[in-house]
Amino acid sequence: MNIVRRTISIDAATDERLRALATERGQDEAALLAEAVALLESVVDIDGPDIEEDRRRLDAFKRSREAIPLHEAKAWVESWGTDHELPRPKPRRI
Length: 94
Prior knowledge:
Layout: H1 12-25, H2 29-43, H3 51-64, E1 66-67, H4 70-79, E2 92-93
Antiparallel strand pairs: 1-2
Helix pairs in contact: 1-2
Protein name: Ribbon-helix-helix protein, CopG family
Organism: Pseudolabrys taiwanensis
């Protein structure tokens, strides 16, 4: 493998989280970042957004006015892997 040295600037909280995750997984920070980039690439279309899909979803929301508030989605995701995992939130009229 060809290794490239790169310097990045991150805030202290992100650095602390990166170190903790790497320690928890038994990896160094570089390996953890490489996995994170690979995961991001697998779920985000780097080539560009799907504008038609975005429009379809926006139109569906305008018709139904059903959605999951962001704070509820965040709380659900943050509960994953804990002893108090929340049930998946359900869309409702907002």
